[in-house]
Every structure is written in structure tokens, then in C-alpha cells.
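Hi V.,

You were right to ask for the full record rather than a summary. Here it is.
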Amino acid sequence: MASSGNKMKAGGTARMVAALAKALREQMGLTQEELGQLIGYTASAISAMETCAQPASDKMLIALEKVLGNGMGVFEKARKWMLIEKYPVRFQGVAELEAGAVTVSSYDTFVIAGLFQTEAYAQALIGGGFPSVSDQKREELVEARLARRALFDRTPTSMIELILEEGVLRRPFGTLEVMREQMRSLAEDAQRENVCVQILPTDRGLRGSHAGDRGSMKLLVTEDHDHVVYLEIEDQGILISDPPEVAKLAHRYAKIRSQALSPDDSLSLIKGLAGEEP
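Predicted structure:
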């Protein structure tokens, strides 16, 4: 069971939402219990939100906008920043860049890329990590991770590439059924018009060249058409924007892509592991 000792420190948006919600509630003459009844929450949940013991979820912000927003849209506007605050600090800036990116290209060697994760897979991955996190923090991290999937359907359309080491597909988290569900979801995502998924075979090194031996990377082309690379290891994140360094890593990524299976062969492998007909 996850420890409850990891208490989350509320971010600036969470504190702003809490203060504004309390002020508007009191202005309307509502008790915490009455507001809770109007938006489908208990009085203790409203109290936890107002004291930042448990910042508002995305669902609660939508409900608060309907009851307290008064046409201002403040709670609606807060949704983006609240989600970003729920990411680990090392990823917050990258999450904002990713959400507006023109192109997202990832190479992952150990787990399914966060953008492609199902809820059950994310729950198992985050809940089973070390050191453990509280149940509340786990739910917040899962919510924020799943919110990234909005990129798939964003307008204007983003081009999304994913290269996975074959071993990632064979490394289960949670249960075998959780992994099969993840494979089915990955296969569906791979068939989107703006998505390309490729698998780098486990035996690639037997051919004398393996360009992915130095680990995972994420390449982004931002909405301003800047090129950046994000690297992460042992809870440390590095964002690289120096053009020569970015170019070197982009060339390495291109080589990895050339060594991977074709999108069609990759999809067949994923479907087979999911128990579906290729």
C-alpha cells in the first residue's frame, strides 16, 4: 500500500483557486455543505479544496465554473495550470511545451511513453514506484498523465512519433490483463492519422549497430518552431535547446528510427502481443 506520508505542497494555481472559490462561496452565502451539494461533493471535500489539503480535481473545477464562475471563466482557465502543477517539478515546463508542440518524437526503452499510457497501466506504474507516493498523489499524477492525451486530438494537429524497445512490450506492470489492455490501446493509437509507432527489435544489437544504446529521449518542435530535446534519468530532467546539441540528438533519433521495424510490422507485433489478429 502506498504511504500517506508524502504530503503534497499546493502550487500557486491551487492556492488561487482555493481562495477564489471560498470568496465566491461566501459572497453567495453558501456553506461548504451547500456548495458541495450543488456540485456533487461532500462538505469535507470542499473544505480540503479551500485549505489546499486536496487541491481541486479537473472534474471539480468544471463543476465550480458552473456554480461559482458567474461567466468569468476563471475556473475553466485554471484547469490547464492546475494539471501542470500536478506533474513532477522536473516535467512541468516540458508538459507545457508538449501540449502546444507541432511535433513530438519519443524513444523509450523501459516503459510505454506517458502520452500513450492507459489509466490502469499508469496506476500500476506510479503506484508501484519507489519511493512510494500517497494515494492522493498517485491519483493526481495519473490524472495529469492522462490529460496529456488531449494532444492526439488537438487542433491544429500535432504529428506524434513513438519508437519503443521491444522489451517494453514484454515488461508487464500491474497484471497481464493490464498489459494486454495497454497493448490494445497502443495499437489503436498507432492507427491514428497523425501518429507513427515503431518497435526497435530486441536483437538489433546482433546486427553490429544499435543507435539507441544511450537511453530514452523526447524531441519537440514547439509552436514557435523551436527544436528542443528532453532527457530524463533517475528523477532528473534535462531540457536541451542548444542547436548543435539538439541536432546531434536528432540525428541519433533518426538513426534509431531507421533501425526500427516499419510501422506496419510494428503494429502487427503489438496486436499479436495484445492477443489480436495482426
